[in-house]
Amino acid sequence: MSRILAALGLLFLTLPAVADDVPDPLRRLPKDCGFVFKIENPRQFVEGVTNLDAYQGLQQFPQMKEYLDSTQVRRFFQVVKYLETELGGPWPTLLDKVAGRGIAVGLALTTEPQPALLVIEGTDAATVVKAHTLFLAAVREENARAESKQEVQQVEFEGISVTRVGKDFYTAQRGTAVYLANKEVAMKEGLKLAAGKTRESVLDRASLAAARKLAGPHPAAWGWLDFAKIKQSQQAKDFFETTKKDIFQTVIFGSTADAARRADFITLVVDQSPTGYAVSVRLPAKRADLDPNMAIHAPMHGEPGSRPLLKPAGVIYSQSFYLDLGFLWSERKRLFNPENLKDLEKGVEGLNKVLPNTTFGKLLEGSGPYHRIVAANTGEKLYSVEPSQAIPPVAYVGSMRGEQYGDSMDSLLRAGGALAGFQTGWKMSEETHDGVTIVTFRFPEKGEPKFDDEEKLRFNAAPSFAIVGDNLIVGSTPGIVKRLIPELKKESKSAGSPVVWRASGFANGAGQLIASSPEATVTQAILTQGIGLAEAKEQTQKFAGWLKTLGHVDISIDHAAEMYEFKMAWTYGK
């Protein structure tokens, strides 16, 4: 609505919860809710962010200073100051009084748009009444100032006074609770519980209790979705049917779809710790019940779900996952529908004609199920010619099921590189590093390329490959291959994690890359901010240093014993 209303609404949404033995605001949400989200400790959550070194450091940049000086932000802080004056205390104390028992929002899944009810439960009735009165005054004032045609009316539901603004906003206060709704039906259903006309709340839903248990003992916030209701829709039925029949969708997210097919609810979890935050989506889908066809995505006999993440010096991004293409090929007649199988085998016939001393099927069967991707800032100088933009080296590491696969891939990559040389002009060379042969293809520095490359981006790469134990490394530069060789040599075949897909992004490596190749960032600062070269360089170096304070982000997919989990975690930098 208005900026003041939005600011007050934001204040209501950033409120703390207290001890577990006090009344739960979920008891005020009607039983027919299909989605619920509860903030358990939002004050701790918000203060955790504002106290971060990364947050404090962000305020040194002109863009952030401009945002903090914007009308909307200044108005928000003016509202905070006004409330502190009127209610007689600093905002943390006031939030304890106004919403110390938590915040809960519930949505019905029956109509579009969904009726939603937000309940904020405080600990001090007098402060709640006064805060709500100030809120209503701000609504009326802003409505009059903006000359809005939305009428502000007082109505009564279940003997409780309700303020209605137009047709899409309702608010009421009863005791220590404040209610906000987007539809009349949502407010009425909530106030029936408040008036004792209805006894059963969303807390009486068995799957909600199971979702809360799955969320763990102390989440900062958590949510529940009645997925059984959603799966009754025709769109959901069509989706699950398609993923069973379409092998390409199975390859992309088949095991995730299988877990969703078996789950009656979904739990959303926000965790906070002294070292960071994590957001998880959890489904009550046991690993033991995973479809055997999903052996393409998850090992079925106790093997690791993924190999260790590779973290060479200067790492920016590292990924490790399980994908058994050998299983897919060996079971193709059972997994593929007839049409897809016919197209696949026709394409394979063509490939077999150009593959030296092997077949496509043998390559898939010889390839291992473990795959890793890594990007790192190596700082290597590949050519005397500088590309217009620095691109960090990237490497793929794939496991092998035998030496024959390694020999076949060595021959195939050499032959493919030689063939590509007619178009790229690159030349092949070999060197030995730590007892391992590295084959590299380098672009010529003189003459014009036979392909379009005005930005000279090709000079970021000198494609290389090597075989280390049961791993094939294919890298964009020989430097990243060299950095991975000692890591692969020292790890054991049994090392790894039960998690089947995981990736990490490292801000420190990104900061190193910008610091070592600042030209693109400097140019962008000059063009977007209209500043001089010296200021742009200084700002770029500050930005590179700030990035290092962000730590790293980890993303994972895990078919755990009792649940499926997709998780994204942010760990602070030091």
Overall 3D shape: globular
Q: Major sheet, described briefly?
A: 20 strands, antiparallel
Instruction: Determine the mean pLDDT.
Output: 87
What is the total number of structural domains? 3
Give the termini separation: 40 Å
Which stretches are low in confidence, meaning pLDDT under 50 for 5 or more residues running? Answer: 1-22
Signal peptide: 1-19
Protein name: DUF3352 domain-containing protein
Keywords: Signal
Task: Walk me through what this model shows.
It comes from Limnoglobus roseus. Keywords: Signal. This is DUF3352 domain-containing protein. With 574 residues, the chain is α+β, with helices and mostly antiparallel strands. The protein folds into three domains: 3-198, no CATH class; 205-285, no CATH class; 286-571, no CATH class. It is built from 21 helices and 20 strands. A hairpin with an 8-residue loop joins strand 2 (103-107) and strand 3 (116-121). The protein is globular and about 85 Å long.
